[in-house]
Design a protein that fits this description.
Helix content: 10-25%
Strand order of the largest sheet: 1-3-4-5-2
Number of strands: 5
CATH topology: Thiol Ester Dehydrase, Chain A
Number of helices: 3
Low-confidence stretches: none
CATH architecture: Roll
Length: 133
């Protein structure tokens, strides 16, 4: 079962037509990934400040299937698809009720927080991510 995070669409999320502006879905998905990590016990500021690592997005593939509109209650899911040595791929869906509006595949890379060079995902994180939905 995928991790799920609720999002409400506000005026600031919409364009002149009252539809969610396409780039704002990326923000919704980022929030859900942050909460997914938090739910697994990983605060991103602690990962940066204590463990000297950060997860940065390298690639996003998005299919826009249907629009979301002002005041919609959305559900943003996160499901790990592949965990590698230094990278992590998650599949994300933004849905209204049970209708998928957006499906995406996001690749994030673990980097050294100072040099921004790829590093291996620490074992304590891998153990949790490999067993978590």
């Amino acid at each position: 079962m995928a991790f799920s995070w609720p999002v409400r669409v506000y005026w600031e999320d919409t364009d002149a037509g009252g539809v969610v502006y396409y780039a704002n879905y990326l923000k919704f998905m980022e929030r859900a990934r942050s909460e997914w990590l938090r739910a697994r016990g990983f605060e991103q500021d602690v990962l940066r400040d204590v463990h000297n690592i950060m997860f940065v997005v390298r690639r996003v593939e998005v299919d826009y299937l249907a629009p979301a509109r002002f005041n919609d209650a959305l559900d943003v899911s996160v499901s790990p698809a592949r965990v590698g040595g230094a990278s992590l791929v998650v599949e994300q869906t933004v849905s209204r009720d049970v209708t998928p509006l957006i499906v995406a595949r996001v690749t994030a890379v673990c980097v050294d927080a100072v040099r921004f060079k790829p590093v291996k995902i620490p074992a304590f994180i891998l153990q949790t991510l490999e067993t978590a939905p």
